[in-house]
UniProtKB/TrEMBL annotation:
Family matches, as InterPro entries: ATP-NAD_kinase_N, Diacylglycerol_kinase_cat_dom, Lipid_Phosphate_FormReg, NAD/diacylglycerol_kinase_sf
Coiled coil stretches, renumbered: none
Pfam families, alphabetized: DAGK_cat
A single GO cellular-component term on record: cytoplasm
GO molecular function: lipid kinase activity; phosphotransferase activity, alcohol group as acceptor
Lineage of source species: Eukaryota, Fungi, Fungi incertae sedis, Mucoromycota, Mortierellomycotina
Chain positions covered by the region annotation Disordered: 310-339
Species for this entry: Linnemannia elongata AG-77
Top-level taxon in the UniProt lineage: Eukaryota
Residue stretches making up the DAGKc domain: 118-255
Biological process per Gene Ontology, one example term: sphingosine biosynthetic process
Biased segments, Polar residues type: 313-326
Stated name of the protein: DAGKc domain-containing protein
Amino acid sequence: MSPNQFQAKASFAGHQRVSDARLSLGTHELTIHAPKGSDNNTTTIQVPYSCIYGYETSTDKATGENYKNKVIVHYVAFSGPDLRNPSAAKRTTAQLLFERTEDADRFIQTARDLGALPTPRRILLLVNPNGGVGKAKRISDTVVKPMLQHSGLTVKEQYTEYGRHAVDIASKVNLDEVDSLVVVSGDGVLHEVINGLLSRPDWDRARKTSIGIVPAGSGNAIAASLGIVSQFVATLTVIRGETSKLDIFSLSQLNRPKIYSMLSFSWGMMADADIESDSYRWLGPLRFDVAGFIRMIRLRRYPGKVYVLPPKHQQNPSTTEQQLTPPQSPSHKREPESQFQHLLDSNIKEPPKPWSLIPNMPFYSMLLLLNCPNVGETIFFTDTIRFNDGIMRLWYSAETRFWKILMPFIFDQQNGKMVERDLMKDLECGGILIIPGVEGKPDDPSTHKVIEPDWVTSSAAKAQNIYQNPGLFDVDGEVMPTARTLIEIHPSLMNILVPEWLYHKDDDNTTARAHEVAVIQAIKAQQKL
């Protein structure tokens, strides 16, 4: 028998039968061969390493006696090949009774050496008790903590108690005591964690702390983009500890703190619908559909100019760094580097080449910058987006016809083809400068200021029914003041926890593909039982 093979009696959750079995620890999976009936047929069950979230040695509940020769493997199993389907995942166990304690110990050590068992890490778990209309605490108590109990991870749990509490926590957490910051909530608390980490004096160290999410909000766009809408799969992802690089957007305004985004920025109809949907949180994910339909009926036209910088791979090599940026001061070391901060000066009417104005846009009905494929749990925007390719993707439209806007939201919300209709135009960008026609806080009329009267109050503008107030600037579901705004991308700035089988269709990620194959093969083997 090879060092990776073992003999044990095996049983599985939901099955009473105990069988003598041959165990094999392979490259990506634990394989269990057990006799089936009296005709010498064999049942094969595969447990992919990427689905194992922990183990325990068995304890007699009556006597408290520990059976060190009995190992219970905890893992997530799928009922079908769609690993993103939240209803396909469930927790289950394989109970393995070895003849000797030494065999059990050797099995555990071999499994650990092969990466079958989670690597011990230190997790700070932030639970928003108000997330998802109060369901976050229930998810933490019934799913997350029970799975973490068997993981071997060191976990500290903390509830958020007020708005932006996660910013305060992340900005002060002792980085020597934590490896990952994980939120049980919606996208908003993860947004706060990112801003807390990047606002620290030691941000360059803090950014390397991995971040993760267990979806418990009403939007859950990040979880949907990562394929972890299932709380079981999301918690498994946290435990396994696989990470991927994550691009971050920075949003700068004059004399205001910088804001960081991992998900989206929007202005116009989609921003209005997102923020106004807060009034319908009790509807869950449906709140975005309701608010969006209302805003389509009452569509607004926002005046402004938007300039874009081509991504680096599209820029003319003859354009020198001296032309693009002024000399940098040492202060850039206090935060992620900004190359174009000088463009926030209102005396600069338009940025120099290679920046260019989006053409023929007297006003916008919607403008959307995305870093992830989903804009909500139920809205799959496009599969052309990758969250770690160093490119910003901008969609914009001046369309005001109700039926034209309604069509993609009816037919294409979940198929990734919203951008394939002619409603929106798109650009790849390395930077964006937005100059709105009206500035100020949308809910405070005393702050409203018309920047360009020709765009807003002229007879031509009034003939087009241009909106006279500032539009909402929406960053990851949070409102920021409407003002001259510079958006820059910071490629691969942070690390986010992802399933081990996650890869983009254009990636040459052989390891992730191998994990996916192992999971699919396990599903097929299970379906044959």
